[in-house]
Amino acid sequence: MNRPGIHYYFWMNSDWAYLGADRLEAIARQQGVPIHYKPVDLPQVYARTGGVLLGQRSPERQAYRITELQRWCRKLDLHVNPTPRFMCPDATLASLLVIAINQAGLPVRDLYKAILRAQWCEDQNIADPVLLAGILQAHQLDADYWLEQAPLMQAQYQAHTEEAIAAGVFGSPSYVYQGELFWGQDRLDMLDQAITGHPAPA
What we know:
Blueprint: E1 6-10, H1 15-31, E2 35-39, H2 42-49, H3 59-76, H4 92-103, H5 109-120, H6 129-138, H7 143-149, H8 154-166, E3 174-177, E4 180-183, H9 188-197
Helix pairs in contact: 1-5, 1-9, 2-8, 6-7
């Protein structure tokens, strides 16, 4: 994690990552710093850092999550369905695809946002290889090739997860800049300020 820039740890099931995606990109562009995209296995992160998966939380916490999502959707003028038809399915294949394409040096910004949007805005099952193939094709990517490459990224997926935990990450999205952790899309302004105060070396 010694490369300069924003180390972006996120779950491919994260509604909050979707809400923060465009603002993160804008900050990185304006500040002239790269984003290092690192999908993580959030259930594993939770299991090792004391987190609780949404379905296991109290009704009060689940209800407040919906309230907060609605507030942020109004604030950002974005749409998210708090309870989509396919909510938080197995995100492994989607994560491995993003990692494989990123490792190849290809842009993943629009791809990972399209996968998040499919779940949280379009009621699609992002665990379905057929759906993911369609998203790949819509982004001019060879679906057969990348679906074959994805399983080879399992070790890198675990490495991202281990790196996140070592950096203090316990939720998604999380951003680490020069060793400082910012959890949640509601901390993006603070991330922006940190970059302004401590610009990355050229």
